[in-house]
Amino acid sequence: QKEVExxxxxxxxxxxxxxxxxxxxSDRGSQSFFWYRQYSGKSPELIMFIYxxxxxxxxxxxxxxxxxxxxxxxLIRDSQPSDSATYLCAxxxxxxxxxxxxxxxxxxxxx
Amino acid sequence: xxxxxxxxxxxxxxxxQEVTLRCKPISGHNSLFWYRQTMMRGLELLIYFNNNVxxxxxxxxxxxFSAKMPNASFSTLxxxxxxxxxxxxxxxxxxxxxxxxTQYFGPGTRLLVL
Lengths: 111, 114
Known about the structure:
By secondary structure, chain A is mainly beta.
């Protein structure tokens, strides 16, 4: 079992729709959870982080964390073609300061 | 703020040659990370420094890889000798320990070993 799992996609949504990206993790002691966006040929860019169970909203983005079920999700409302990218889920495992990344989900927003 | 700076941005070398990648973290950050990204293995941690001290080097593939951080504003990752399987994008990231490791990535170095 991978430490951080994501569906590789591509996830295709029409412009204006809600895109839902999911991530599961294996280490129950994980404490911090991050979503990065990576455009092709570019470096990962931090979108959001979440530490506590529940929802955290930032503009069009909402991160959701459920520690009991060991999953994290990212919702993108009013999706735009410019949101087309690979979204990486990252987890800060207990006792290890560096991040463990999932393989990413490729999102395509169709105009 | 200039962000994390990496050099070179692209490197093409022949198998057996020494390669040195360089990183300047964001001023004031006390954590520095080296990652490698490939299609097959995704983004994986190589080594992590905190206050210039290597903390976790469990991801360093083998003795051919070494990393140093002589001061708070500079780090190097060296591969000697390089092999074709080392071809990847190498990212440096920095962060503030106090902020639970929110990390900011540099633009990366694309390495091709022929």
